[in-house]
Design brief:
about 325 residues; mainly alpha; Hypothetical protein af1432
Length: about 325
Amino acid sequence: MNIRESREEWERQYLSPYASKSSNSKGRDKPEPLCDIRPEYQRDRDRILHCKAFRRLKHKTQVFLAPEGDHYRTRLTHTLEVSQIARTIARSLKLNEDLTEAIALGHDLGHTPFGHAGERILDEICPTGFAHYQQSIRVVEVLEKDGKGLNLTWEVRDGILNHRTSGRPSTLEGCVVRLSDKIAYINHDIDDAIRAKIFIEPDIPARFTDKLGHSVRERLNIMIHDIIQNSMDKPEISMSPGMEEAMQGLRTWMFEHVYSSDIPKAEEGRAQQLIVSLYRYYMEHIIELPEEYLLMMINRNEKKERVVCDYIAGMSDRYSIDKFLELFVPKAWKA
């Protein structure tokens, strides 16, 4: 018995009967020889961690565009916080931690530059529409590795696709990530908003803080414990009714007082105009796309609108700004 087989046997003996076992995976679209060390979900986790799209998340906006300060969250730090919360819950419930982490690390790979502002404008101008959760799947199935994709297991792709609020993950591990995503961004966005002096902790309505806690640390602790206590030895992942109601209420309050406030929205118009300008330029100068995108039109018969959208969506904030400066801002010259 090799190391992978030993680990698979450990999963069968130790994990919850409701957990997703590596040896029971529905597999990959393109079958591959099994690794002698790593179970399938661990391989997926490693592939996501080492892919280019994951590294680009460090320069993609979470909420605050181009903030002056090193401590505001980026899309990468958000992803890591989701992963940490999800792994804590999964381990406590004896679910598959490798699968949970793979889904968490991959759930936002398809996000655009400039956060949801970029997502909204691409959805408007791209004929096929745009949603980051669908783009995350496109990243792992098509765009990574020069059009070959990462060939992830079905369970990981299902969790990535269904991490959105309206999603219905097929595994409990995917359900854990779906809830962990909300817990993470509600709390770290509060922390960032307080840092940005949008409000102070006492401004949060007592009907939420009395139930959820009066600090980021306390809220995280209470929410995570609530999920574990309400999901232990059950075939579902859930919060207690009062806790979920308070969390959704706080999320709505955040949309009204943070996400729509002047500070995070101050540069949104400029960011969206930048994306529109890049989209129009590359639609008219398609040959200037990197070779890997041109080959997708040849080898996969992809439409140029789709490929231009892929290229722009994959850009980091600063790379898109650099491209805009390169293409549209006059250069200084000497005689």
